[in-house]
From TrEMBL:
The gene is speE. It comes from the Bacteria. Keywords: Polyamine biosynthesis, Spermidine biosynthesis, Transferase. The lineage of its organism: Bacteria, Pseudomonadati, Pseudomonadota, Gammaproteobacteria, Lysobacterales. Spermidine binds at residues 65, 89, 159-162. It holds the Pfam family Spermine_synt_N. SUPFAM superfamilies: S-adenosyl-L-methionine-dependent methyltransferases. The active site is at 159 (proton acceptor). This is Polyamine aminopropyltransferase. The keyword Chaperone does not apply. Residues 4-240 form the PABS domain. One of its GO terms (cellular component) is cytosol.
Amino acid sequence: MSQPSWFTEAHEGSGSSIGYRIERLLHAEKTPYQTIEIYQTTDWGNLMVIDGCIMLTSRDNFLYHEMMTHPALFTHARAKRVVIIGGGDCGTLREVLKHEEVEHAVQVEIDERVTRLAEQYFPELCASNADPRAELLFIDGIRYMAECEPDSLDVVIVDSTDPVGPAEGLFNAAFYASCFKALRQGGILVQQSESPLAHLDLIRAMRGAMRSAGFHALRTLPFPQPCYPTGWWSCTMARKGADLAGFRERGAATKQFATRYYNAETHKAALAQPEFLREALGD
């Protein structure tokens, strides 16, 4: 009997690795921006890998997409205009469009091939791509935000890869200043912010850059994510001209759409930071 094949991603910074048992390679290509691979696993559905880093699996991506979306949209009073920077697999777009108050959601992904491969291998994530409220653009998100009309957006979601390669420019004060300018009063920026266990220095640097761009209300929300380093991930919310002390708890508790992880209780739980994170971030 042949030995099973595994895809393993080593995380040098944390001295750990994550691996998945593979049935076969479904697709591999090098785009002008990155190398994308799609595998079929034995237990986790399809697996997308970009430049050797695990992006998502069919089995657990709902954790990330729901937490990148619903805490921000249930914190905002009524988000009508939303921009997603990155998010080429379209899972975040799908979650955003579950909110009836959203009138227009723009997804700005630099690499169109990510979306086209998601449509083929993760079609459930692309179920809302044809929604008339959705607009998919395949351009540079940094430039898009820099050219955005001031005070025109309610929520900006930065659903990016790690801060290397095409995503490196999404983690600095200049980009956050563009987001701040584009947001209306009370608007919210939310960005994936890596693992609280392995990337505290990055989280602190992100938050410092957000403050220097004008955001003063910040919250980092941890959540489980088995396919990412340490199995524990986070997103960081920053708000323009308002605090992040509460959210529309009743609305979250009575939401009229299905989720698999997010609810009012998991939202409250994410706001209750563990002691080491509170001490490290000064919240």
